[in-house]
Amino acid sequence: MRIATWNINGVKARAEGLERWLRDEDAPDLAVLQEIKSTDEAFPRALVEDAGYTLHTHGQKGFNGVALCSKVPLEDVAFGLPGDDADEQARYIEATAIGERDAVRVCGLYLPNGNPAPGPKYDYKLAWMERLHARAEALLAEETPFLMCGDWNVLPQDIDVARPQVMKDDALMLPPTRAAWRRLVNLGLTEAFRARHPGQPGHYSYWDYQGGAFDRNHGLRIDHFLLSPAVADAMTGCTIQADMRARDKPSDHVPVWLDLDI
């Protein structure tokens, strides 16, 4: 099963690119999208369904929003991260993807940016990460094979950013952010890309539109897969599709791919 996570930065702005990507010869079996910036009703469903995918969205007008586009059967689709019934931001979706032999619980997320920090937006980011930690603990306790993927807005290490000194006061790499990330990983989860590409700098999944960032490779690696032990054992590859950033009308993020033998 090939799973891809991609922050498309607006489904309407990226409709043509999304359609071409879903119709590529190596299109994903399951695409986990973030920042669709669309209500459920306004999402261009035909674009996805005509390419052979079923679609589940958790949308919000003009902001946030996550979606699952799947060629494999999905069961028990759920919307919203547990732990705060008052949270109205559309940032989380879950479903069980059924492989040929095994199933995996796929948790798609768009983690809050948190800037400016300190401040209420950063407090919300850290609280959201605590809720995500609780969800991971619950899935581990159930012995459910699962993965968490999406735009994490977290730079785990300095090698995940081209210019660490420029970002040192940013919410994406402040010490409490990195500590919350490590608490998740220390539950026994595997960060897929680093497991396959340990210690390698220069790999990024986001480049700002300003200042020729992509041409200079002034990027950030903030789109990640975290895998439970059973899913980590099934991983056969994890790559970043950096060439997508050079296409017409690109998102500022590119897809990250996970290959599983399930």
How would the blueprint of this fold be written?
Blueprint: E1 2-7, H1 15-22, E2 30-34, H2 45-49, E3 54-58, E4 66-70, E5 74-79, E6 92-98, E7 103-110, H3 120-141, E8 146-151, H4 164-167, H5 175-185, E9 190-191, H6 192-196, E10 206-207, H7 213-216, E11 219-220, E12 223-227, H8 229-234, E13 235-240, E14 256-260
Parallel strand pairs: 1-2, 7-8
Antiparallel strand pairs: 1-14, 2-4, 3-4, 5-6, 6-7, 8-12, 9-12, 10-11, 13-14
Helix pairs in contact: 3-5
Give the percentage of residues in beta strands: 25-35%
Task: Write down the Rg.
Answer: 17 Å
CATH topology: Deoxyribonuclease I, Chain A
The first-level CATH class name: Alpha Beta
Global structural class = alpha+beta
Could you give me the name of the CATH homologous superfamily? Answer: Endonuclease/exonuclease/phosphatase
Strand order of the largest sheet: 3-4-2-1-14-13
Roughly how many Å apart are the termini?
6 Å
The tally of helices reads: 8
Mean pLDDT: 97
Helix content: 10-25%
β-strand number: 14
